[in-house]
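Data deposition worksheet. Section B asks for the primary sequence of the deposited chain exactly as it was used as input, without tags or linkers unless they were present during the calculation. Section C holds the resulting structure in token form. Section D is free text for depositor observations; keep each observation to a single sentence. Incomplete worksheets are returned to the depositor.
Section A, Depositor: J.P.
Section B:
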Amino acid sequence: MNLDQLEFVKAVIECGSFRAAADKVGRSQPALSVAIKNLEDELSLTIFDRSEYKVKLTPEGQAFYAVAKATLESAQYTARVGIELGRHKADTELHISADPLISTEILELIALECARPRAAGESDHQQIHSSGRLSAPFGWRD
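Section C:
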């Protein structure tokens, strides 16, 4: 199993057909079909029900796709982190100075928010309110 095969499965689901998925990923339809069939054979799993005109996921395929989608998202995040670390644009440590009277719940919220993966283009510029809500600082525009 490889990430290309998982991308092909995702493309078929998003596009609704093997032909459209092949166009989307820039492969021939036979090559995409063979890659998905090889994945199914490797896993002894039928991902797609091909008995009707429109392809659909089997119940097992639905469960597999949920994990495959999370795997692809994780791989994309891993690549982004690696690139940022390679360019020395990502900090690997977080230092927080806080008033000793600040609630530890707020510090925990800050730490969790800092550790949360960000979607592409999502701002890191946020502020924690005493209510525990996060918001962008006054005047900040994304």
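Section D:
Residues 134-142 have pLDDT under 50 and may be disordered.
DSSP finds five helices and four strands in the chain.
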